[in-house]
Design brief:
The complex is a heterotrimer.
Chain A lengths: L4 H4 L2 H16 L3 E4 L7 E3 L1 H8 L2 H18 L5 H28 L9 E4 L1 H21 L3 H10 L2 H5 L8 H44 L1 H16 L2 H18 L1 H5 L7 H25 L3 H9 L4 H31 L11 H10 L3 H31 L2
Antiparallel strand pairs in A: 1-2, 1-3
Helix pairs in contact in A: 2-4, 2-6, 3-5, 4-5, 5-6, 9-10, 9-13, 9-15, 9-16, 9-17, 10-13, 11-13, 13-15, 14-15, 15-17, 16-17
Chain B lengths: L2 E10 L2 E11 L4 E5 L6 H8 L7 E6 L2 E2 L5 H6 L1 E5 L10 H5 L1 H5 L4 H14 L4 H4 L9 H13 L5 E5 L7 H18 L3 E5 L2 H7 L2 E6 L2 E6 L1 H6 L4 H7 L4 H8 L17 E3 L4 H11 L3 E5 L5 E6 H6 L4
Parallel strand pairs in B: 3-8, 3-9, 6-7, 7-8, 11-12
Antiparallel strand pairs in B: 1-2, 1-4, 4-5, 9-10, 12-13
Chain C lengths: L4 H21 L5 E6 L2 H16 L4 E8 L1 H10 L4 E5 L3 H4 L11 H16 L1 E3 L9 E6 H7 L4 H9 L6 E4 H5 L4 H8 L8 E4 L4 H10 L6 E5 L10 E3 L12 E6 H6 L2 H12 L2 H12 L5 H11 L5
Helix pairs in contact in C: 2-14
The chains are: A mainly alpha, B alpha/beta, C alpha/beta.
């Protein structure tokens, strides 16, 4: 039985390799600008290699391309996949090192304001390294926990080589923001927590009531759906006026930090957004609890609360976790916008960059948000897989 | 412990489902509510633990109207086993059984001891089964756990709603015997619902036969078989083999005679019923058997004509 | 019932008590310092925070809160206590656009001070001797090629049909005392396709757009105290007709807060006096061009002048 072309090869990898070669040749790897504001002149990978590379590096790169091309035609070989994962992790660190070396070698003495920023080429190659590695990890077919671990461990070489990029614009922006960075992360996490935890509690209660009254479900879901469609900035804005009015009426609220600006409108808006995924998954979870178990529990003399806590919630948990994961990831991203109403957080750094026309600062604000979202996603995936081992 | 149903009525959508139902249950009885589908037997059972409400009349538990109890307290004093079992999939067998005791606040040691006791009572080795999860058990094992769970807190009455209906005939027979043994050993009061006549005849100390929400006849299994009040009863119990069914309820022990003439070659245990004795004779093409007890001592003989011509009335 | 009634009642009681208690505590809270979201706002806001803290007044940092409207509303509503504003903004904030006083620093300041105190019990403290007025800056090459030195030249150039595209904020394009005033005084009118409207009031984006000719932009909205203009090859067009009011930075504080901490006035006065236009340009350049953190720039400046140890 002959296999089709698709089965005999890895077309996805072929696509990635083609894109990588295109990006390396056609997109600027770096940009050099005389100061922080200007976009600067493009520098291509070839130029960078000429400046900071040597024969060994050129040979490595060539070998890498050859390896990948071979891998396209050996989709099943586990050893090759493992090798790819390793080389991709090294490549991710490698592009960073190349960029960092180039920035260090650029003449700083003449112009102390000189900025070397990461170009589209760099980002594309980095993203492709990640994607190729993901594909290879999937082909190795590991169980959930080891797979998630491997996906996280992938970034280790990059983390270890971060220091080499000191002269890059993004590192310089970070150095300037170092003091506010930590508090910004904490504030961001605080916003997410304050929005998601009440959404979880109230969402659960709402879903539970919905399993008992049909009317509530028909009344509430349309409202939740409409809320989801309101653009976040608009919702923040809508909440500011009533909250400000409330703060004037009850001065104590203002002192407690609840006012028209700051964390209050942000948290309330994010809470409302988080409700839909949580209520939906909580309801689905509760509805798939076996009816005979619920019946038996009632007949044995469990109160409604005991039934919920001892039977319904544990059995609804796997489905609920899916919705909760979705809500947390969504809120982590949305919390960035809350900087516009003065709530602070990582969004503050992002908007600073946006308004000061400093792109590297925007990236500096965005990357941690993405990382936080990815970590939250992985965390819940791990939690879900741990629960599955209990039948 | 007494239970009294007094003039119980129930309607669904204006139509009467249960009419004028009266029943007294004493401690230690195994009362079977028997009847075709739709006869209201399940509904009546569920009225007792207030899973279903009654529209007229009163139900008294130990002399007190059940509506005056706190419903959870009432239910915790009654065990409930149903056909779909309803074990908690996320809890071990032991934890499932321990449900009501824990709700009542028993201490851990007492709970553990009771779980082991019940598993052994239902012929399941605690060491092997207490830590297993429901999905790792067969249908019959799950129902055993269900029964154990219902009995766990030593309830005043055990309510069983066609518990063995979903099992294969072999498992069903084994569980019926198990339940009969437990009833004899513990004296547990049981209210049992079924549409299976043989099951009713095997288990019941008293049968309540229902049709369209009314009691047609009430009495011991033998009474119903020997004196059916009307055609419905006779038909329901299986008109054609009423006689054979009676035979299965009567033990041969009282009818063992001294051996006269030629000693019969084949033997039979002294604990069997008439039906088994006659069946054995038919298989061997003989008309008499030598009766022996457990260690082989000959107790006498039984003869086919004697068995068929005597009655226990 | 999932929650007993008594639990609900108890928690409501607790919440009410908490609110009551916190409103009593209010009287002795820290001074909440706000600012606008642009570069100079962050600079001045941080200067104020550091100066007050160094003199023993506890502050709560709410710098970079939002745009003019948000910050001003917050002050009037009592959600912040002090923030840096511009004298020129008094014209539209206090509804006195017609008054000629705004064209003069001192006169505008006195007018704003008087009106705001009467209307809103808000005190205007001593201003800086700087003019952060709105201006239009054009690319040096455009200026040289067409001999553009002032807004008169620009007006004539546009009226003759010269290629002109301005990057500006929505506020600049719409406020009657901004672009409309320029257009009226210098006799030109921008078509819709001759303007690129950007979000936010920070001129870094507009200056960058002009410097890089993004979407054909060759002119940018700028502020008088902007840092990066020269470095990015832009030239500020003079305003001989004095269309723009004077925008001198001054701290605005709520009267009751000032009563609680009268030292605020004496602490900030000399600092603001020391901030003239060249100084502000230099400090702004550090933030915008070099990317330094505004708080660091603020503390560095205060230390260099001896306001901070």
């Amino acid at each position: 039985m002959s296999l089709s072309l698709v089965q005999r090869s890895n077309p996805v990898l072929a696509l990635y390799v083609a894109l990588a070669i295109g990006a390396a040749g056609g997109l600027p790897f770096l940009r050099v600008a005389p100061n922080r504001l200007l976009s600067g002149e493009p520098v291509y990978l070839w130029d960078v290699l000429q400046q900071v590379g040597n024969q060994q590096i050129d040979a490595l790169l060539l070998g890498l391309v050859v390896l990948l091309c071979i891998a396209v035609w050996q989709p099943g070989q586990r050893l090759i996949q493992a090798f790819i994962i390793l080389t991709m992790a090294a490549s991710l660190s490698g592009v960073w090192l190349l960029a960092g070396q180039f920035a260090s070698s650029a003449t700083q003495a003449e112009n102390p304001l000189l900025r070397t920023s990461l170009g589209a080429g760099f980002w594309t190659l980095a993203a492709l390294a990640w994607l190729i590695a993901l594909d290879a990890i999937a082909r190795v077919q590991l169980p959930t926990l080891p797979r998630l671990f491997l996906q996280s461990a992938f970034f280790l070489p990059l983390l270890l080589s971060l220091n080499e990029g000191q002269q890059l614009s993004i590192a310089q922006e970070f150095a300037n923001q170092r003091d506010v960075f930590g508090p910004a992360i904490l504030r961001h996490l605080q916003i997410v927590f304050l929005a998601v935890v009440p959404a979880l509690i109230i969402g659960l209660l709402l879903a539970w009531r919905m399993t008992q009254t049909r009317n509530l479900r028909q009344a509430l879901f349309p409202i939740l759906n409409v809320i989801q469609t309101i653009p976040s900035i608009a919702l923040f804005g809508l909440l500011m006026a009533p909250l400000a009015w409330l703060a004037v009426q009850l001065p104590g609220l203002g002192r407690a930090g609840i006012s028209g600006v700051g964390i209050a409108p942000a948290v309330i808006a994010l809470f409302l957004y988080a409700l839909l995924p949580i209520v939906r998954s909580a309801l689905a979870g509760l509805e798939q609890v076996p009816a005979e178990a619920v019946n038996a529990a009632r007949a044995m003399g469990m109160s409604a609360g005991q039934l919920l806590w001892q039977v319904e919630l544990p059995l609804a948990l796997p489905v609920l976790l899916i919705g909760l994961r979705s809500a947390v990831v969504q809120t982590t991203g949305l919390a960035a916008v809350s900087a516009l109403v003065g709530a602070g957080g990582l969004g503050q750094i992002m908007f600073d960059g946006l308004f000061s026309a400093a792109n590297e600062l925007v990236i500096l604000g965005v990357i941690p948000i993405v990382l936080l979202a990815m970590m939250a996603d992985t965390f819940f995936k791990v939690l879900s897989s741990l629960i599955k081992t209990r039948p | 412990m007494t239970i009294k149903f007094q003039k119980i009525r129930k309607h669904y959508d204006g139509a009467a489902a249960i009419t004028d139902f009266n029943l007294d249950i004493q401690q230690g009885e195994l009362v079977v509510l028997l009847g075709p589908s739709g006869s209201g037997k399940s509904t009546i059972l569920k009225m007792l633990n207030r899973m279903v409400s009654h529209d007229g009349g009163h139900i008294f538990f130990n002399g007190q109207d059940i509506n005056s109890f706190n419903v959870q307290d009432l239910r915790r004093r009654m065990g409930y086993a149903m056909q779909s079992v309803g074990l908690f999939p996320h809890r071990t067998v032991g934890h499932n059984i321990a449900t009501v005791p824990r709700l009542l606040g028993w201490d851990a040691q007492r709970v553990q001891a009771r779980v082991n006791e019940l598993l052994q009572l239902l012929a399941m080795d605690p060491k092997q089964y207490a830590g297993r999860y429901p999905h790792q058990l067969s249908g019959g094992q799950q129902q055993r756990v269900g029964v154990a769970r219902a009995m766990a807190a030593d309830p005043d009455v055990l309510l069983m709603d066609e518990p063995f209906g979903a099992l294969d005939p072999v498992t069903r027979a084994a569980l019926q015997l198990q339940l009969k043994k437990i009833h004899r050993a513990t004296g547990q009061t049981i209210l049992f619902v079924t549409h299976d006549i043989d099951e009713a005849l095997l288990l019941a100390t008293r049968i309540v036969l229902l049709n369209h929400g009314r009691i047609v006849q009430m009495g011991t299994p033998l009474e119903l078989l020997q004196q059916p009040t009307n055609d419905f009863v006779a038909d329901f119990l299986g008109r054609a083999d009423l006689g054979l069914k009676q035979l299965s309820l009567r033990p041969i022990a009282p009818h063992i005679k001294a051996i006269e003439g030629t000693e019969p070659i084949h033997t039979i245990s002294h604990t069997v019923t008439f039906k088994e004795a006659i069946s054995h004779m038919a298989t061997l093409h003989v008309s008499s058997l030598r009766v022996v007890n457990a260690d082989g001592t000959v107790l006498g003989q039984v003869h086919a004509t004697d068995l068929l011509e005597t009655s226990d009335v | 019932m999932l929650f007993s009634l008594s639990f609900l009642r108890r928690s409501l009681l607790f919440a009410a008590f908490g609110l009551l208690a916190s409103s009593v505590v209010q009287a002795n809270g820290p001074v909440r310092v706000g600012s606008k979201i642009d570069t100079e706002g962050k600079l001045l806001g941080n200067i104020m925070v550091l100066a007050l803290e160094a003199n023993g007044i506890k502050t709560e940092n709410k710098v970079s809160l939002g745009n003019t409207k948000i910050v001003r509303t917050a002050l009037v509503a009592g959600e912040i206590d002090i923030y840096p504003e511009y004298t020129g903004n008094g014209a539209f904030m206090l509804g006195a656009e017609k008054s000629p006083a705004w064209k003069d620093l001192r006169a505008g300041y006195e007018l704003a001070k008087k009106m705001d105190f009467e209307k809103n019990k808000i005190v205007w403290l001593e201003p800086a001797n700087a003019n952060n007025t709105w201006a239009i800056a054009v690319r040096k090459d455009l200026a040289t090629a067409n001999q553009l030195r002032s807004m008169d030249d620009v007006g004539r150039y546009i009226a003759k049909g010269g290629t002109f595209k301005l990057a500006a904020s929505a506020e600049f394009m719409e406020r009657t005392d901004a672009m409309p005033a320029f257009q009226a005084a210098y006799g030109f009118k921008l078509r819709a396709d001759q303007a690129l409207v950007l979000a936010g009031g920070d001129t870094a984006a507009t200056i960058k757009a002009a410097a890089e000719k993004t979407s054909g932009v060759n002119a940018a909205m700028a502020y008088g105290t902007d840092g990066p203009l020269a470095a990015l090859g832009l030239l500020v067009m003079e305003d001989p007709k004095g269309v723009q009011p004077v925008y001198a930075p001054a701290p605005l504080v709520r009267e009751e807060v000032l009563k609680r901490h009268p030292a605020i006035a004496t602490i900030l006065a000399p600092i603001f006096k020391s901030l003239d236009t060249p100084t502000l340009q230099m400090l702004n350049a550090r933030i915008q061009l070099e990317g330094q953190d505004p708080r660091k720039v603020a503390s560095g400046y205060l230390q260099s002048k001896g306001f901070l140890k």
